[in-house]
Amino acid sequence: MITEKTNIEVIAFDADDTLWMNETIFSKAQGQYREMLQTYIEPEVLDQRFHETMIRNLQSFGYGIKNFTFSMIETAIELSYGKISGLEIQQIINLGREMLKHPVELINGVKETLHKLSKEFELMIITKGDLFDQEGKIARSGIAHYFPRVEILSEKNEMAYTNILKRYQITTEQFLMVGNSLKSDVIPVCKIGANALHIPFHITWAHEQVEEKEHQNLSYWKAKSIKEVPDLVKC
Predict the structure, then answer these.
(1) From CA 93, how far away is CA 36, in angstroms rounded?
(2) Average confidence (pLDDT) over 219-233
(3) Quick one: which of 19, 40, 41, 204 has the most CB atoms within 10 Å?
(4) What is the pLDDT of residues 159-170, one digit of tens each?
């Protein structure tokens, strides 16, 4: 917990699982995927191979539904030894398409919190993922007007945050990053000397999980809900 007085002027928010639900959509889709492939492979083996395929494909397809869908297809073909039918592949494609159409469901308290903060701070979105998908969710969210600046990144690391601060001429003391991922929203921000606030989501993708030793010596804010942010920054 940071206790000293801060000079924060800009608050940036992660999008997925910080402003709106996201991982729950992926979790539900993966459950449907297991059912589709249950005649070919055990669920535990499928989950492991699917995860490995998605991580391998990050370099080609990045984060998001595009990688998720392509990796489902690739894993299904590999684990069925090419026996999966064209109809079944079409079902997987349809599953990915339905994910893209899923309504944006704001996390409880988001609108009220942004309304309060926008009166005293400049707000940004800094998220990662597929450009088309993320732009679409921001546009459909009903909260885009709170964010004059939006950054959609291929990866969130120290260099990416440093470049953003330089581009907008924001000092580390003026900047606060709010997000659900220790790996993407907290650790790299703390390492460049800026402020971070961690709000856990009840589901965390395995790729975003970190060991305690990676963040135990870092100083950052913690909250249980986005509703706590105005009080933490004395809004």
Answers:
(1) 12
(2) 94
(3) 19
(4) 999 999 999 999
- Residues 35, 29: Cα–Cα separation, whole Å: 10
Chain centroid to CA 211: how far?
A: 18
- What is the rounded average pLDDT for all residues in the chain? 90
**Distances from the Cα of 112 to the Cα of 41, 117, 119, 228, 232, angstroms:** 46, 9, 12, 11, 15
Class of domain 10-20+105-232: alpha beta
pLDDT of residue 144: 97
All CATH 1.10.150.240 domain ranges of the chain, comma separated, are 23-101
Token representation of residue 111: 């609108």
C-beta of residue 117 within 8 angstroms of C-beta of residue 235:
yes
What is the identity of the amino acid at 220?
A: Y
| The CATH number of domain 23-101, selected from 3.40.50.20, 3.40.50.620, 1.10.150.240, 2.60.40.420 | 1.10.150.240
For 78-109, what is each residue's pLDDT tens digit?
Answer: 999 999 999 999 999 999 999 988 899 999 99
- Helix (H) / strand (E) element for 33: namely helix 23-36
Confidence (pLDDT) at 130: 86
Residue that the structure tokens 């535990």 belong to = 44
